[in-house]
Amino acid sequence: MGTQGPACFPGASLMYISPGNIINYHNLKKSIPKTSTDELKLALTNALLKSPMVSVARDVITNNDSEVVTFTEPGARIELDNCNSAENVKVTVKVMLSNADSGIATQAVTMALKELGVSKLDVVLLAMPARPFDEDLTIDHYKPVWSELEQLVKDDKIKMLGVCDLDLAMLTELHSWAQVRPTTNQMNQASCCAIPPGLKEFAAENTIQLIAHSDPSDILPPEQFQEVLRSHYPEELDSAAWHPSWVLRYTALIRNRGIITSKGYILRAQRVLPLA
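^ that's the sequence the OP posted. Answer follows.
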């Protein structure tokens, strides 16, 4: 399955992968992935079967011209018609960040809107990295990213915001500080059966929904992503040194039928050139 001969994108420092609607994947019907990481890796593997598109573009995060390689599987767009109008379809996006660079949340949401072909997301859940900037996560790391999302709410790009895995202290502080307050706190199911009473009480008093998830704190570590790349592009100049900067997962639910009509992932990865 891997390529042979010279590297295909040795000068690329940015990569975007959009594997399309995974509900249409026939191999998912045969074997259901055990974890969200397995599901993501399967989606990426399918997307990497497509030929890469290499271009030069200005990166909105670093503000530098970069060589970009893109893998896109058609089918991410949410088709709206008389039966599935925008009012009848709920689009939820979970943005899982690996770093907290300025502009990163805005870029992820903007790409989701473009790939899905919608003008507004109903819910955006923010999952922050455990150690942004090599520091333990604090509310001060949340604030700049949250401010970006608040602006997108004001711009009518997002309806509601949520957070992931916040304890009572951090949730209280964010809720007190924020202009657009979180309506959801998504908690890892390993601890959701023993929600601290104080957190449960605070959520009830402030109309914050507590829901469970099973995503790992790092859904795709760099070494696992590079392993997926190597299975298709074994040349080191193609596969080495890449690390995801964000992964987002989207789901589109038909409200009156309770049916998920679209589900998928979009990934942004980067690396520093030249390679050592």
